[in-house]
Amino acid sequence: MKDVIRIAGAFVGVLVGAGFASGQEILVFFVNFGLWGLLGTLLSAAVFVFLGMALAGMGSRLQAQSHKVVVEAICGPYLGRLVDGLITFFMFAVTVVMLAGAGALLEQQFEFPAALGSALVTVAVVAAVCLDVRRVITLIGAVTPLLVLVSVAVAAYAVFTREADTATLETIASEQTAGARYWWLGALLYVSYNIVAGVPILAIMGGTARNERTAAWGGLLGGLVLGGLMLAIALGLLSRLDTVAGAPMPMLMLVSEVSPMLSLLVALVILGMILNTAVGTLYSFCARFLPAGTSRFRLGTVVIGLAAYGCSLLGFVSLVGKVYPIFGYLGFFLMAAILVAWIRQRRSPLLANPDDVRAT
Question: Is the entire prediction scored with pTM above 0.85?
């Protein structure tokens, strides 16, 4: 049971980034569709549950130490190499964004110079990644319960302080700009946008599990927790849409109504989410090229961490922002490929011999 909880916690910890914590992503992809957006969170949750279960199970079956072996099992040896390269680049890009975001947050909340804040967070992330994979997974998963509690508490506060009626909130929602034309497409886009980052950590987590059943249950539980969080935050933001519509960080806006001290706590929680994501993505990137737990891996982590820090100072965030939509389409392809691989596995064991994949 401990392995299941650890895998689920790491899954949630990596995918719940700063955009999720601030409420902005939930606002755009769910809340701005009104009540239909709540149904969208359930659709996203179902897809996350399936993907988490399937990917962690494949990682366990193939004893994956990086996402490469799982990606090639899903996409084939030739197309798999292309997808592997795109995912690998995405891991580095997300790490850069997280370091830049951490610097901005520390500057806003604590008046740290952004460059110094990013440097401090880089040191913390590199130090965490240099630990062995089980410790990294435990570290990421340990913070997840706090993230869940704070998010649910803020959402509950929003629901109980609602003043506008449902019809008014629906009208306000219809006037907002949503992330897609249809609520179901927005829900699928949200999963697609995130699963590219989820593939590496789920593959690696599955590879560390005692058996495939444990890995699959960990992925399933992580998907359920993600779904519950999305529903709770979406319900809370929709209840106060008359107040938070158009706000860049709607969750922090709600918290600031309660007290400055609580706002400080939530800012720290968001920082923890940024650290979660950065640790997971940097580890996945480094594990793709270097054997984890070795001196080469630790040295490589330091070098790559310094490179990510440098990129975060060069305005790389805006470049990545333009690239993200491409990875949304890649995510759609991955979801379809994972479904096909899962169906194929039901009919006959998928690559029962992991060496068949590693040899390609």
Answer: no
